Amino acid sequence: MSDEEMMEGGVQKKFCYVNRTAPYGTVYALEALEVVLIGAAFEQDVSVVFMDDGVFQLAKGQDTAGIGMKNFSPTYRALEMYDVEKLYVSKESLEERGLSEDDLLVDVEVKTAAEIRDLMEEQDVLLTF
Amino acid sequence: MLHTVNKSPFQKNTFESCIKHAAKGSAVLLIEDGVYAALKGTSVSAEVQQAMGDITFYALEPDVNARGLKGKVMDGVNLVDYAGFVDLTVKFDRVQSWL
């Protein structure tokens, strides 16, 4: 453990949350978001990746009144307040789904599969939902 | 026959199987994550368009809206609410759910 880590009172690791499922059809998207928020309290180096159907989690204009479920999408905008600022979205996944960055409700960094691969290789811990 | 598909066409092959086995004159109702098959400009859009001649497509509007897809559903896919879902199950003699 470095001096800096000792002073902070703990080890900082690189955590990556990989979101690959669409929202509402299953509970994975909502529960993953809960884990990211809880994890943020531990002051780790957090990255959140949205790929495959996970990109649908960030779609603008979600209105869940008709299905009787809570619309949790505004919470993605609150991630910044928890110092979770590294949000990455797969370029290929967006293209396959006819979406662009403008269709998303938060500012993200669009990355290619190769870039996401490299990002994953840098991590200490990966959690997939 | 009325076919229902409730899974994303990008994640499961149920939509693919459904289209392959739906007879002329039948209807396909997209519900839950199945509504993503109705989205314009995707990698499965062409397949839906091609099948439209023989099959009538419906998508459940509450699921479309929940996922932020309002205004992004391709032309030719009919939007129905839950009451419309009920009507479809009555109109067709049988229901096949592709889970």
Written description of the protein model:
The complex is a heterodimer of chains A (about 130) and B (about 100). With about 130 residues, chain A is of the alpha/beta class. Chain A has a single domain, classed as DsrEFH-like (Hypothetical Protein Ychn, Chain: A), CATH 3.40.1260. Helix content of chain A is about 30%, strand content about 20%. Chain A is built from five helices and five strands, in the order αβαβαβαβαβ. In chain A, strands 4-3-2-1-5 form a five-stranded parallel sheet. Chain B is of the alpha/beta class and about 100 residues long. Helix content of chain B is about 30%, strand content about 20%. Chain B is built from four helices and five strands. Chain B has helices at about 15-20, 45-50, 60-65, 80-90; strands spanning about 1-5, 25-30, 55-60, 75-80, 95-99. In chain B, strands 4-3-2-1-5 form a five-stranded parallel sheet. The chains are: A alpha/beta (about 130), B alpha/beta (about 100). The interface of A and B includes residues 26, 66 and 69 of A.
Primary descriptors:
heterodimer; A: 129 residues; alpha/beta; Hypothetical Protein Ychn, Chain: A; five-stranded parallel β-sheet; 5 strands; 31% helix; globular; B: 99 residues
Offer a quick outline of the entry.
Chain A is an alpha/beta fold and 129 residues long. Helix content of chain A is 31%, strand content 19%.
What topology emerges from the helices and strands here?
The complex is a heterodimer of chains A (129) and B (99).
Chain A: H1 3-8, E1 14-19, H2 28-40, E2 45-50, H3 74-78, E3 86-90, H4 91-96, E4 109-111, H5 113-122, E5 125-128
Parallel strand pairs in A: 1-2, 1-5, 2-3, 3-4
Chain B: E1 2-5, H1 14-21, E2 27-30, H2 45-51, E3 56-60, H3 61-66, E4 77-80, H4 82-91, E5 95-98
Parallel strand pairs in B: 1-2, 1-5, 2-3, 3-4
